[in-house]
């Protein structure tokens, strides 16, 4: 959160009237909706969420036990804002953008004390600023005036803030500066520093949303191949406990071809978040070999923190994502899990005694969710460039029941749905993305990308796979009744092909060095190899070869090793020619 304005508390103090968990009411506070206030003697950070006459209701982002009536409430007069500037990459924040490592140094523990403040970005560190414009140049809001090497991977662009007027550059500096020092001056009198503030509940301005036509390549076959997400698209991952939500999100953070990753750990069980905080800084970035954190910002709200902070976590994350989007980057934002945020809304709403909607969630649940996902997209930027935010939200429906309100409302908004399945996870079929329930509405608009970058017949081959899996699904019902052997031979063969689609193609081991990432070409070639088996096998069947003999061909089981094959091109070439040769030899 911004420090600059903390000291400018202008308005008169109010007085606490009541405290109910994270919800505090105060009287005599001169405040507007969404103003940030400091509550109680300890100065806990909170936000105004309701004003009725002289009574102001505040949601507090820190634990309120021990805070009582009569204590003061101080208004900053400012909305909840984030401080945006170099240093956010490679940072781990809590829900109100306090860097966890800084707080840890201050307090000697990762669990935060109350009322401790720390600036979101380091105010003392000096950054090397290289100007991109010259004196006399005209600049408008959003224009880049210079760059800073933020991390080994990311070049930070210093931009004219969107709420500036812009004008002609009268002074531009070069060299090492702190984020608070002015690096450029405009004839309008405006001064540009390397950081800017932005209120989190307000989307940063951008031009029109464009139709996304490029996939966010995830390196996961089932996702890229069957249910692709576009750069600038929205996706949800619902799944019961243990079905692989965290692994899936982390695979995305690690392997997707986004420039920037913003990872929000929103109120998941404390130890899980600790795992993420400990694991991420160790992970290498497969794109560059540099640490993954060099292009990642983690926002970690553990469940030890009060529920209200989950909301600020989400808004802080999306605002940071927008800031990097404005630099022209493709940002991927993961939120794990949006259900915890929805539960926080439910709790606050019930403390406010609002009229409950479905299952006690507030009536505005759908609106809040869609406001969040709405900030995703591929945008034309105000400086004329392009940038995107892809948003992936995990949903944790209690008992894995997708009919509950958070899953249902999310479904109505997102265009890619990766439904994790407890049965598949139990059978150790990973990623446990259920191919019957999942979908992607981006398929058609991304096909041209696949066709020009991977293979001209991509959509036909994929459709073939979808049809086989559908047919398997129908045949399974019969198999359960009468057994596989009762089926005609061609249907038995279809089941065999479908088995390879599932085991050799859809399954992918995140824990295997090679299989953990699958480039689009490999995804295509693996699928094509299974189709080669299919085509050759059906030819053999038609020529009168019994299905058992076809199944016994020695090249087929090798299909299952394609995923883990390092020299996959050669490996697949060989399987294809062996399949052809061996199956043709049968007739
Ligand atoms: P959740 O977050 O839904 O509770 P996790 O992501 O922690 O579930 O996954 C549970 C376990 O399932 C993991 O510890 C791992 O062993 C296994 N798993 C999940 N996804 C994969 C995958 N893609 N490849 C291999 N194992 C996986």
TrEMBL record:
What assembly does the database describe for this protein? Answer: Has multiple subunits with at least A(3), B(3), C, D, E, F, H, I and proteolipid K(x).
Stated family: Belongs to the ATPase alpha/beta chains family.
Return the broad EC class. translocase
Protein name per Swiss-Prot or TrEMBL: A-type ATP synthase subunit A
Query: Could you tell me the superkingdom of the organism this chain comes from?
Result: Archaea
The keyword Ribonucleoprotein is assigned to this record: no
Task: Spell out the reaction equation it catalyses.
Answer: ATP + H2O + 4 H(+)(in) = ADP + phosphate + 5 H(+)(out)
Q: Where in the cell is it found?
A: Cell membrane
Picking any one GO molecular function of the record gives: hydrolase activity
Q: How does it sit in the membrane?
A: Peripheral membrane protein
Gene name of the encoded protein: atpA
Domain ATPase F1/V1/A1 complex alpha/beta subunit nucleotide-binding, residue spans? 219-440
Source species, please?
Answer: Natrialba aegyptia DSM 13077
Domain (ATP synthase A/B type C-terminal): residue spans on this chain: 448-549
């Amino acid at each position: 959160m911004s420090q600059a304005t903390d000291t400018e508390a202008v308005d008169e103090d109010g007085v606490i009237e009541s405290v109910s968990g994270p919800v505090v009411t105060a009287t005599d506070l001169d405040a507007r909706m969404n103003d940030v206030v400091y509550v109680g003697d300890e100065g806990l950070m909170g936000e105004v969420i309701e004003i009725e006459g002289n009574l102001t209701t505040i949601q507090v982002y820190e634990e309120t036990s021990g805070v009582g009536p009569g204590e003061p409430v101080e208004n900053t007069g400012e909305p909840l804002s984030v401080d945006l500037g170099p240093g956010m990459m490679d940072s781990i924040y809590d829900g109100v953008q306090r860097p966890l490592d800084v707080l840890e140094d201050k307090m000697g523990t990762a669990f935060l004390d109350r009322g401790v403040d720390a600036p979101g970005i380091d105010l003392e560190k000096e950054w090397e600023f290289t100007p991109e414009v010259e004196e006399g140049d005209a600049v408008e809001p959003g224009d880049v005036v210079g760059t800073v090497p933020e991390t080994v991977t990311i070049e930070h662009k210093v931009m004219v803030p969107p709420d500036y007027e812009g004008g002609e550059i009268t002074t531009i500096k070069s060299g090492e500066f702190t984020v608070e020092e002015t690096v450029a001056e405009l004839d309008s009198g405006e001064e540009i520093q390397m950081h800017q503030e932005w209120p989190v509940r307000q989307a940063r301005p951008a031009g029109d949303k464009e139709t996304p036509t490029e996939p966010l390549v995830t390196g996961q076959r089932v996702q890229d191949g069957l249910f692709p997400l576009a750069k600038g698209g929205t996706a949800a991952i619902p799944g019961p406990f243990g079905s692989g939500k965290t692994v899936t999100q982390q695979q995305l953070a690690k392997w997707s071809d986004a420039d920037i990753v913003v990872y929000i750990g929103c109120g998941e069980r404390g130890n899980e978040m600790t795992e993420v905080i400990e694991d991420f800084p160790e992970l290498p970035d497969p794109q560059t070999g540099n640490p993954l954190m060099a292009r990642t910002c983690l926002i970690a709200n553990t469940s030890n923190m009060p529920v209200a902070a989950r909301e600020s976590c989400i808004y802080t994350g999306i605002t940071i994502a927008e800031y990097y989007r404005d630099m022209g980057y493709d940002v991927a934002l993961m939120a794990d899990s949006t259900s915890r945020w929805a539960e926080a809304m439910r709790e606050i709403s019930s403390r406010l005694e609002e009229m409950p909607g479905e299952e006690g969630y507030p009536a505005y649940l759908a609106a809040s969710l869609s406001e969040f996902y709405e900030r995703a997209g591929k945008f034309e930027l105000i400086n004329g460039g392009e940038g995107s935010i892809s948003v992936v939200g995990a949903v944790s429906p209690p008992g894995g029941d997708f009919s509950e309100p958070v899953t249902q409302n999310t479904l109505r908004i997102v265009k890619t749905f990766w439904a994790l399945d407890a049965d598949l996870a139990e059978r150790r079929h990973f990623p446990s993305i259920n191919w019957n329930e999942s979908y992607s509405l981006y398929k058609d608009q991304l096909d041209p990308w696949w066709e020009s970058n991977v293979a001209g017949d991509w959509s036909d081959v994929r459709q073939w796979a979808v049809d086989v899996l559908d047919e398997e699904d129908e045949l399974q019902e019969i198999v359960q009744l009468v057994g596989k052997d009762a089926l005609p031979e061609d249907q038995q063969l279809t089941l065999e092909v479908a088995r390879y689609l599932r085991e050799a193609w859809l399954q992918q081991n995140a824990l295997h060095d090679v299989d953990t990432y699958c480039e689009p070409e490999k995804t295509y070639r693996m699928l094509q190899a299974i189709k080669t088996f299919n085509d050759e096998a059906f030819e053999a069947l038609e020529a009168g070869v019994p299905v058992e003999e076809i199944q016994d061909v020695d090249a087929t089981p090798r299909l299952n090793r394609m995923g883990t094959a390092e020299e996959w091109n050669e490996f697949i070439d060989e399987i294809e020619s062996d399949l052809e040769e061996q199956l043709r030899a049968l007739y």
